[in-house]
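does this look right to u?? adenosine-5'-diphosphate version
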Amino acid sequence: MNNQDIETILSGIIHPDLKQNIVSLGIVEQISVTDDKIRLTLNFPRAKDPFANSIKRTSEHAIREKYPEFGGDIIVLIKEAAPKKIEQSAPATTTGKIKNIIAVSSGKGGVGKSTVTSNLAVTLAEKGIKTAILDADIYGPSIPKMFGLEDYKPLAEKTEEGSDVIIPAESHGIKIMSIGFFIDPEDALVWRGAMATNALRQLIHQTEWGEIDVLLIDMPPGTGDIHLTIVHELKITGAAIVTTPQQIALADVVRGIKMFRSEGIDVPVLGIVENMSWFTPAELPENKYYIFGRNGGRDLADKTGLPLLAQIPLIQSVSENSDNGKPTSSVYTATLADNIISRL
Ligand code: ADP
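got this back:
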């Protein structure tokens, strides 16, 4: 195996956005092959290229697949242009007639981000606000299940101008589009990375939302390629960060807040939502049990100088309803909705 062999493999990898292979784009800057090491330098012409990590993984994967007998290291160094260039190239636009876009994010999975998104959407819709959800959580797109839309197959239509649009589902008066309508959860992660980013870009630009006051985006947990894609493709009004009160969950939240606030991303963080704040059993309605610790979200809000948008207790019916495709509003989601609206 020599440099030429590696270059041939890499020339089969297409940059999903620039639509050319990474060799002819000049992204492959250097290849060095020894008996026990392959080093690649990938130099991306734009800063924070949202596809950099998935291209890195795909490169490693393609080489291993072609040379399964090679047991050495594959080291891929990513270089990128100075951040100044993003501002020139970022196509951040608000999609059509959507007035506000709110990213609902979390540091970890399982904190109730999708449940909060669904119940908040229902609350907003009940107030007469035109609401939509874009479920971008590639690791667990649960919005279809929460609205009983598992079998929805999005239709594509042609507009009068001849462009293709995708028709969102509708439930509780909420327009809903999910990456889960397109991606089989069983599919391999490696393949899913690039595939998911492409599908998501298509959903962002081709969904026929109509007039919308608030679009909620159910983000994947943590920070990664999908977050960068979304903030580059859409003008996000603000982010709401969902956490449970546990200390362990909080470090990841801080990382998420930093990402939204970082240079070149600059998404305002509207505040923190503390979910599963306490548990009140039906037979002891006055009692509050702080099973995940007390006020972790409030403390974090104080520490980061962000507003605490709501504290939402663990409620058995919340979990049952979202399992049964029936999201519901409560006094807690009403507070959350009011606090978000007042910040738009
Ligand atoms: P995430 O989107 O952060 O991965 P989910 O919204 O899927 O998390 O929630 C994880 C689980 O916790 C689900 O079973 C959901 O029904 C349950 N859950 C979330 N929030 C609450 C709550 N406030 N009360 C009761 N159950 C909740």
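The chain has eleven helices and 13 strands. idk if thats expected tbh
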